[in-house]
Automatic annotation (TrEMBL):
The keyword Transmembrane helix applies. The chain crosses the membrane at residues 12-33. The keyword Membrane applies. Keywords: Membrane, Transmembrane, Transmembrane helix. It comes from the Bacteria. The lineage of its organism: Bacteria, Pseudomonadati, Pseudomonadota, Gammaproteobacteria, Oceanospirillales. This is Uncharacterized protein. It comes from Marinobacterium stanieri.
Length: 47
């Protein structure tokens, strides 16, 4: 059904790598933003 040879993989693999990298960056970015929001909320509560 799906015939994957090395020539089609040459263009397919980088596309999948880019999509995977964007998902990882988004995941870590969301975690980072949540941590920063908690820090800011703590600082705002101290005043």
């Amino acid at each position: 059904m799906f015939n994957i040879d090395k020539y089609s993989l040459i263009s397919f693999a980088p596309s999948i790598a880019i999509v995977a990298a964007m998902l990882v960056i988004t995941f870590f970015g969301i975690r980072f933003m949540k941590r920063e929001m908690v820090k800011d909320a703590r600082k705002a509560g101290e005043r």
